[in-house]
Input
Amino acid sequence: MLIAFENSGLIHRVLTSDGIIRYSFTRTEKEHLHFVCDKCKSIICLNDIDLPKIDMPDGYTLSKTDLFLHGTCKLCNKFK
Ligand SMILES: [Zn+2]
Ligand SMILES: [Zn+2]
Output
């Protein structure tokens, strides 16, 4: 079921730093940053922020950028 959604581009797979696969119900066309809330553990897609350009050393090819920003989300900041 989830795989079907994933293939249709309706959701995408997010692998967190602790090795847990989460799904984000956001349609995405481009690579983007993810924000992880350390309080509620939710993962938010930051589609509006440009990915930082990463200069790889000689001999390395970058195929995917999987960056996570950690902090406290909007909701947690509101209800702390
Ligand atoms: Zn939160
Ligand atoms: Zn995302």
User: Anything to note?
Assistant: The longest strand covers residues 33-37. The longest helix spans residues 2-7.
